[in-house]
Specification:
With about 325 residues, this protein is an alpha+beta fold. About 35% of the residues lie in helices and about 20% in strands. Strand 6 and strand 7 form a beta hairpin. The N terminus is likely disordered.
């Protein structure tokens, strides 16, 4: 096999299954257009109810052009600005000798053209794709395991698993810069069960999208934000709701108040037990920690990573409520 020496060269077909769509700058109109016709890695987590920023409902209507694009937050902006720096540092100091790295390319699966992948970096030995790199820049180490482990936020696990499925890889790397000065590398090896599950859920989402099958409602804040955006006006009229729905509305408010009181009671118990300590542990598990607010103020207690959120297994979402 003749090896490509040009570091930017990418074959039109990768591993016999991934078709090159093009090379686009992240966030550009062309980049968004390539993703509009399918599902990207950062979107599949929403489909399976694992995303913190997007729900199945909001993603569906965003794909239908019923919602505006997600506004770029400060963390998103700085993540984009830092990405080239983290990328170059990895290439110069950590990439195996004999490999080359490319970036900015978008691929689709030849049999499932709606399945899109655009990793931050692809590592090649000549024209053979051997690994991929996804870059993250985060402020705190919450949900991130030690360097060299596979403990990452579950939505990022879903993202790189999706990329592996498109590109025919059995592994991926995540390079994460934490708090601006703590670089860590994570090796992710998706299970066959995870790949099949994500693929099938993605297929069902695209089927619903193409056939105008309305999504169910869920308890995600992104769903509530989407509903508000879809109904920006207030008309001077009255609607009648089912009495059962009204009863649920009153009950959930009562339950919420009781839950908030229970939460604060336990939080007070943790805070009193901690005293002046910074961290509370239960064996090897970090339960809570104290930190100061920005500016002036007394330290407050925050929860450690919930064991469920530290899972390395992509779980099926809870049942939704019909709209």
């Amino acid at each position: 096999m003749k090896l490509s020496m040009d570091p930017s060269v990418v074959p039109d077909l990768v591993n016999g299954q991934a078709k090159l769509v093009g090379q686009f700058e992240s966030g550009s109109p062309e980049w968004h257009a390539a993703r509009a016709v399918g599902l990207g890695g950062s979107e599949i987590a929403a489909v399976v109810a694992l995303s913190e920023w997007e729900s199945y409902f909001s993603l569906y209507y965003r794909k239908k052009d019923k919602l505006r694009a997600i506004d770029e937050s400060e963390p998103m902006k700085w993540g984009t600005l830092m990405e080239p720096v983290i990328y170059q540092e990895y290439v110069q100091n950590h990439m195996k000798k004999g490999l080359r790295m490319t970036t900015g390319h978008t691929f689709s699966h030849i049999d499932r053209p709606w399945q899109i992948a655009n990793p931050d970096g692809l590592m090649w030995h000549g024209d053979e794709l051997v690994d991929l790199l996804e870059i993250k820049n985060v402020g705190r180490p919450d949900f991130w395991g030690p360097d060299g482990s596979d403990v990452v936020p579950i939505y990022y696990r879903a993202q790189v698993s999706w990329y592996c499925d498109v590109l025919g890889l059995d592994k991926a790397l995540i390079r994460c810069l934490i708090s601006g000065n703590q670089p860590r590398t994570y090796r992710i090896k998706p299970s066959t069960e995870d790949l099949e599950y994500l693929r099938e859920e993605g297929r069902k989402f695209i089927h619903a999208l193409e056939n105008d099958i309305q999504p169910d409602l869920d308890g995600h804040m992104a769903t509530y934000d989407a509903i508000k955006e879809m109904h920006p006006l207030i008309e001077d009229r009255v609607v009648q709701v089912d009495p059962k729905l009204a009863d649920r509305w009153w009950k959930v408010q009562t339950d919420l108040k009781a839950a908030e009181e229970r939460h604060l009671e336990v939080k007070n118990q943790i805070a009193m037990k901690m005293g002046l300590a910074r961290i509370a542990m239960a064996g090897e598990q970090k339960v809570a920690y104290r930190q100061r607010p920005r500016g002036k103020g007394e330290p407050f207690v925050k929860s450690g990573v919930h064991p469920d959120k530290a899972s390395t297994v992509i779980r099926k979402p809870k049942k939704k409520v019909a709209a």
